[in-house]
Specification:
single chain, globular, seven-stranded mixed β-sheet, signal, LysM, Membrane-bound Lytic Murein Transglycosylase D, Chain A, alpha/beta, 21 helices, 5 domains, 30% helix
């Protein structure tokens, strides 16, 4: 329970209720319960929960409750004009969202669903939405579509509770306390222009475990802007990240756009949100920005020579002798060496092409020999203080060692190929999306597009967790559990729909199950409309026992880091590379090119790599790869740009999602 200061009077605004309401404070005494307090005031427990949601937990002695002196009664004359819609609560829906969609007050929804005074909405539950009968004088049913409200304009505010305004409280302080932006607070209370002590307003339910502290000469309020990171804020206000988290406990759950933070007063006007209650917030976040493709080639402004270092595991010390034949044998026998050389050739090509744009680069490369000790030796014996960026190494342990050593210089280290989750060094950029991010990209695609489809999930025991997540995301889906890594035609056919498009999600790495399932689905596709999906295209899908023609007929969909380059749009690049190296560029060449070109363009369009992410929102895209970096909670950045690829009957690959996927923000942890 949170303590409230005693005020003389409590007012109920017309925006909150149709009639006046009087209140008093009750100080909880030892042994009292919500039930006993409700009886003593001749009101219901729901009435207490309505104004004191925290009272559902254990009551603290001496804590204060807001008590309505009379309980609102249901007026039967009004109810005669009301009809009800039964609404099934969907994922992430809130009372505020429902009130806007159905054009009804939140209090009206709670009135006919009394458990919502003290409980949150639960996905899958059915609630009654009151609506005026058609033809009534008061109102008519209006959906968000009728009001022409775009989905992106609907505030994503959590469920609400009431807050009694205390003396000297401001909108900024209240917004900070409840984890809202000022804009969201104003949208929740559209008729409240100036706050007055004693007024009740609507707020969120996530309360910071600290009192609202008014800003002074030492501290000020600051609104988090798009692409800002904890590391960037620590630099902006010259304070360690741990201190920022101590000042703002909500940061434990991750940095979010629009958060109102308490920060040290720099005297440079960086924050200053406390200056006036009607001050507009600068830099409001446009949710569409992250879905916009950026062309940084026309934003170049920093033409200083770029210092770029590439660390790759060539392991040239393992090649005996220095003859040409020895090098050829080493390349043929060592896959890591082949990948390193291909990647580096792409890096060189990008440096050459960037030079045509006026970007000069001092390029250095070192052989890490797949050794943490060698990485340490390279950094200790060479000057890295003025390096703009380091690309590589390839392996996780050497990447983390590099980031750790170069953290002291604040040198960005870009991991080029690893998809493993890494330690959160503040200078580490993970350019390849992790398998978890890829999975959630497919979740996002399925969640947006599987409506109206007959969804069938086939998953073995090893994929039980993914299966459970999919059933939560798609509650109407049907599940098939294979026997001995085999699934029969009859078992699948029993779950297929004759009238709907069937979306089958296949989750396994077992070749036997993948082969039997895809073969059965291919046969059934003759008489049924079937599409095949997976959240992870592992090596099992590439085995010879899994027929590619079957996958093509099933219009196989899967998440991918890269796409197949368009020969027409990449013709000049391919011809130039082929002329120089006498071969068609493979995926590692193009990965090296795309990543390096992205880094150089970002460095040339901003002060440094960190500044480029704060300066520009949206994603960049090149021949096969795209990049959209988000910050991790504890430091560092990861690329969450993922393609959803689809295979057609001619075995042509196409991009199924034509915009930057909206990855879930909890991956900021």
């Amino acid at each position: 329970m949170k303590y409230l200061l005693i005020v003389c009077f409590l007012f109920q605004l017309s925006s909150l209720s149709a009639s006046a309401q009087e209140f008093k404070y009750h100080t909880v005494e030892a042994g009292e319960t919500v039930y006993s307090i409700a009886k003593s005031y001749d009101i219901s427990e729901e009435a207490i929960y309505k104004y004191n949601p925290d009272a559902k937990g254990n009551l603290e002695v001496s804590s204060k409750l807001v008590i309505p002196l009379r309980e609102e009664k249901v007026v039967s004359e009004e109810d005669e004009d009301i009809q009800f819609i039964t609404h099934t609560v969907k994922r992430k829906e809130t009372l505020y969202r429902l009130s806007k969609d159905y054009n009804v007050e939140i209090d009206e929804i709670k009135r006919f669903n009394k458990h919502l005074y003290s409980e949150e909405l639960r996905r899958g539950e059915e609630i009654l939405i009151p609506q005026r009968k058609k033809g009534s004088a008061n109102s008519e049913i209006a959906s968000s579509e009728d009001l022409n409200i775009p989905a992106t304009d609907k505030p994503q505010t959590s469920d609400t509770r009431e807050h009694v305004v205390l003396p000297k409280e401001t909108k900024y302080g209240i917004a900070r306390k409840y984890g809202l932006t000022v804009k969201e607070l104003e949208e929740l209370n559209p008729k409240v222009d100036v706050l007055q002590p004693g007024v009740m307003i609507r707020v969120g339910t996530d309360v910071l475990d600290e009192p609202v502290i008014l800003t002074d000469e030492v501290f000020e309020f600051y609104e988090v802007k798009p692409k800002e990171t904890l590391f960037g804020l620590s630099r902006k206000f010259d304070v360690p990240q741990d201190s920022l988290i101590s000042l703002n406990p909500a940061l434990e759950d991750g940095l979010k756009i629009g958060m109102v933070l308490k920060v040290p007063n720099t005297g440079e006007g960086e924050g200053s949100l406390e200056k006036g209650e009607t001050e507009e917030l600068a830099g409001e976040y446009d949710s569409e920005d992250a879905n916009k493709r950026l062309d940084l080639s026309n934003k170049l402004s920093n033409f200083d020579t770029k210092e770029l270092v590439v660390l790759l595991p060539y392991s040239l010390n393992n090649i005996e002798g220095d003859s040409t034949s020895n090098y050829k044998d080493a390349i043929l026998n060592d896959r890591v060496l082949r990948i390193s050389l291909d990647f580096y050739s792409g890096v060189r090509k990008a440096v050459e092409d960037a030079k045509k744009l006026g970007i000069s680069t001092q390029l250095r490369t070192y052989d890490t020999r797949r050794s943490v000790q060698e990485v340490t030796n390279i950094i200790n014996t060479n000057n890295f203080s003025n390096v703009d960026a380091v690309i590589g190494p390839l392996l996780q342990n050497t990447i983390e060692a590099t980031a750790s050593k170069l953290n002291q210089y604040n040198v960005p280290v870009i991991s080029p190929l690893s998809d493993r989750e890494m330690r959160p060094y503040q200078n580490l950029f993970q350019s390849r999306p992790t398998t978890e991010i890829m999975k959630n990209a497919m979740f996002d695609y399925l969640g947006r597009n599987a409506i109206g489809k007959n969804v069938i999930i086939i998953a073995d025991g090893a994929k039980n967790q993914v299966k459970n997540e999919l059933t939560q995301l798609l509650p109407n889906s049907r599940v098939i559990l294979p026997s001995d890594n085999y699934v029969s035609v009859e078992k699948i056919k029993a779950q297929l729909s004759e009238n709907q498009e069937n979306w089958v999600i296949l989750e396994s790495s077992n070749i036997g199950l993948l082969s039997s399932a895809t073969s059965a689905l291919n046969r059934l596709a003759r008489d049924h409309e079937i599409k095949l999906f997976t959240t992870e295209r592992n090596s099992g899908f590439e085995d010879d026992n899994v027929d590619n023609e079957h996958l093509g007929r099933l219009n196989f969909h899967y998440p991918s880091v890269d796409k197949e380059f368009d020969v027409a749009s990449s013709e000049e690049f391919i011809e130039a590379y082929q002329e120089e190296f006498d071969m068609i560029p493979n995926q590692y060449v193009i990965r090296g090119y795309d990543l390096t070109m992205d880094v150089l363009l970002r460095l040339a369009s901003a002060e440094d790599l960190y500044d480029s992410f704060e300066k520009y929102t949206g994603f960049t895209e090149y021949h096969e790869n795209k990049f959209h970096y988000s910050s991790k909670r504890n430091g560092g950045f990861y690329n969450d740009a993922v393609y959803i690829m689809s295979l057609d009957e001619e075995l042509n690959l196409k991009v199924a999602n034509d915009q930057q996927s909206n990855i879930y923000r909890e991956f900021k942890d």
